């Protein structure tokens, strides 16, 4: 005997989970709130996603995939490398779009040391962001646009730190001008 067919879209539910976890945080989000926001029953929530922690893991993976795609789009666009890096930093920090900070950074700050995926998924995202910045810096150095005497790995780490710091500042309510200064300083170091 086959079970009843699902009356909801799993992927849309994960997208909605990204939004609620990002907005409220993991600890402040109850399973009932998740079920309500996803417009499913609590039983369906657990039958489909197994646990709140598993749904967080899926949400972090979804967020990471989307951020990496957006980052690739920014860094592969036409124009000077420095401008593309500046634009990528602003996109990653959410400047002018929202004041929630980065979902991955927020999750690490909230859950580091208490949940494996809440730490490992963001760490993988941060590693890939840093590598994308390093690759862009190398291209900029090869084209002569960026200083060739700088270590691309060090500069990429500084860019990652700047965007993570800007994300925390954004979450704390810092104004857009301050966030722009942080990121402009990081780009100027190139």
Summarize the entry for a quick read.
Residues 30-49 bind DNA. By secondary structure, the chain is an all-alpha fold.
Structure report:
- By secondary structure, this protein is mainly alpha-helical.
- It has a domain at 62-188: Tetracycline Repressor, domain 2 (Orthogonal Bundle), CATH 1.10.357.10.
- It is built from 9 helices and no strands.
- The chain has helices spanning 10-24, 31-38, 42-49, 52-76, 81-93, 103-111, 116-143, 152-171, 176-188.
- It starts with 9 loop residues before the first helix and ends with a helix.
- The model has no long low-confidence stretch (mean pLDDT 90).
CATH architecture of one domain: Orthogonal Bundle
The CATH topology of one domain is given as Tetracycline Repressor, domain 2
- Under CATH, the homologous superfamily of one domain reads Tetracycline Repressor, domain 2
Low-confidence stretches: none
Radius of gyration: 19 Å
Structural class: mainly alpha
Percentage beta strand: under 5%
- Written as H for each helix and E for each strand, in order along the chain, the element string is HHHHHHHHH
InterPro entries: Homeodomain-like_sf, HTH_TetR, Tet_transcr_reg_TetR-rel_C_sf, TetR_C
Keywords: DNA-binding, Transcription, Transcription regulation
Protein name: TetR/AcrR family transcriptional regulator
Pfam family, one: TetR_C_13
């Amino acid at each position: 005997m086959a079970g009843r067919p699902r009356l909801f879209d799993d992927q849309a539910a994960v997208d909605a989970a990204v939004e609620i976890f990002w907005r409220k945080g993991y600890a402040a989000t109850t399973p009932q709130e998740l079920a309500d926001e996803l417009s499913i029953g609590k039983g369906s929530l657990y039958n489909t996603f197994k646990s709140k922690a598993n749904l967080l893991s899926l949400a972090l993976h979804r967020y990471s995939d989307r951020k990496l795609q957006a980052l690739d789009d920014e860094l592969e666009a036409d124009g000077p490398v420095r401008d593309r890096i500046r634009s990528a930093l602003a996109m990653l920090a959410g400047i002018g779009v929202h004041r929630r900070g980065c979902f991955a950074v927020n999750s690490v700050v909230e859950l580091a040391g208490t949940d494996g995926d809440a730490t490992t998924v963001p760490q993988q995202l941060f590693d890939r962001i840093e590598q994308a910045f390093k690759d862009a810096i190398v291209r900029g150095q090869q084209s002569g646009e960026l200083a060739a005497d700088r270590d691309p790995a060090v500069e990429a780490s500084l860019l990652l730190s700047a965007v993570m710091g800007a994300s925390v500042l954004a979450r704390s309510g810092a104004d857009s001008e301050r966030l722009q200064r942080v990121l402009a300083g990081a780009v100027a170091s190139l």
